Structures are given as C-alpha cells and as structure tokens.
Amino acid sequence: MYRKGQQYDKMAELVGEIYIDYNIYSFPVDVKELCRRMGIRLLQYGEFPILKRALLMKKSPSGFYVPPTNETPPMIFYNDNIGDIGSIGNMRRNILHEVGHYVCEDNDENTDNDDLADYFGKYFLAPISYLIALNICNINQIMADFGVDFEMAGFIEKNLRNRRKNYGNKIFDYEKNLLKHLLKERYDDIVK
After folding, report:
1. Are 76 and 102 in contact (CB under 8 A)?
2. Where are the domains of the chain?
3. Position 109 confidence tier, pLDDT thresholds 50, 70, 90
4. d(Cα 10, Cα 14) in Å, to the nearest integer?
C-alpha cells in the first residue's frame, strides 16, 4: 500500500522521540531491553508447547502485537526460531515492527498499517539520517554496526542511495533532534 511521505516522516520522528525518551545511544539497539523499559511484554513462540506454537505460527510466522487491556500489558508474541525467520537481525526487526504497531496504537487487526510498521522497524534499526551524518554507506559496515543481516543491510543501503539521489545529504528538521541526541557535542561539526 502506498502512503504519503508525511506518514513515513512521522514514523521517523517517532523513532527519534523513542531514542531520546529511552536514552538509546548505541547500536545495535537492544530491542528486548527497549520493550522491557516500554512496558511491553515479550513472549517467544519457543516458550509454548508445540500445539500452541503451531497456532501462533498460523496467526503469523514472524510475530504479532496484542494491545493492552485493563488486565494485561501490551504484548508482542514473536518467533524466536532462527530456522523460521532467518537471522537474529530479522527477529529484532520483527519485534520493532510490532513496537511500531504499539506506538501507533494499532488496535484493530484489520488496520493495514504494516507498511508503516515495517518502515518504523527498519528506521529504528539504522536511522538513515545517522547513516548520512556519519557517511556510512556500505553493506558490510551496516551489518557490523547495526546488527542486521545481509538482506536487511541491502534494503537499508538501497534506501540510503535513494535518499541521497533525491535529497543529497540533507538532514530534515524532524531528524535533527535524533542526531543531536546520538552525536551530542559532535553534532555541529558533523551536521552542517
């Protein structure tokens, strides 16, 4: 589904707000610790008996978000079997995808916000503005610095190339707070 650029900009801005609110300064981001601090309960498929695991897999092979109720906190069920999902990086991205549903308060399973949640997860793993500011541009460095697999690093590198093709090294206003947070006193020297 195609969405207006402003919605993606808002997702990037939300990522920045979370980095700042939860004092995230380093990569790769510890998504399990982030969820713990946000009050989101994480439940691995592998914690359940085989029959229940099969039902979880039927609902979603990668994971899903369950909104909070009066009795339960928000929950993310996620597939922790690397054989099913391909890599730890994919598992981290899947969890962040579900965090995206949480922060956007997607309570209706019929709401088609998966594209925005995907963008949220990818941007959270490796913010494009940070890559631009530090001139990180090759797949191997993206893999090493951000804890993603080759395929995800390729997607991130492609997004970075497209961004540079369309906007050069421009840092947008909604990205500046995140960069000030991550780069601290180096911000003025790096971002011109």
Report:
1. yes
2. 5-190
3. low
4. 6
